[in-house]
Design a protein that fits this description.
Elements: H1 2-19, H2 51-65, E1 84-85, H3 86-97, H4 105-117, E2 128-129, E3 135-136, H5 142-158
Antiparallel strand pairs: 1-2, 2-3
């Protein structure tokens, strides 16, 4: 266990050195993606080295990744085809829901409501939602379903 803790500390230091304070998709970049949510609970014990910077980057990512149908693309500069991706939308909702005093419940709820409104006729989450709002891609997508459940539990335990 000690080596895992040491490796985690090295990884955290590397993320800080290469990506902080902008937490962009690439070192030194302000173009962001959904992976920024991995720097927040439940993926990180406690909080990221500078929780405020990570949360600001996640909020900025939403603006960069927003799609016409209301969901999110996986990252900034993604194909401008209007397609929303449900796994990344759910991941950002989970990141927004995490934390107690720092949670962005409004953003988390908005994204979860959007996901709920864009399920397939059978009620499952598709992989993607087209610009016009219709489901597309693989369904049911378990990754999205699991992340939505984690976000709902996180919101429920925080409030």
């Amino acid at each position: 266990m000690r080596s895992a803790g040491t490796a985690g500390q090295r990884l955290s230091a590397g993320i800080d050195a290469g990506f902080a304070p902008s937490y962009g998709r690439y070192p030194g970049s302000s173009a962001r993606d959904a992976a920024g949510a991995f720097l927040l609970p439940p993926f990180q014990p406690g909080t990221a080295p500078d929780d405020g910077d990570v949360r600001a980057a996640l909020r900025s990512a939403v603006g960069q990744m927003q799609r016409p149908a209301g969901g999110l693309a996986p990252g900034a500069h993604w194909a401008e085809d209007g397609v929303s991706w449900t796994p990344e939308t759910a991941l950002v909702a989970l990141g927004a829901a995490s934390g107690t005093a720092t949670a962005d419940r409004t953003l988390a709820t908005r994204l979860l409501d959007w996901l709920d409104a864009h399920r397939t006729p059978a009620g499952s989450f598709p992989e993607k939602v087209l610009a016009g709002g219709s489901p597309s891609g693989t369904a049911p997508l378990v990754w999205t379903s699991a992340t939505v459940l984690l976000a709902l539990v996180t919101l429920g335990s925080a409030g």
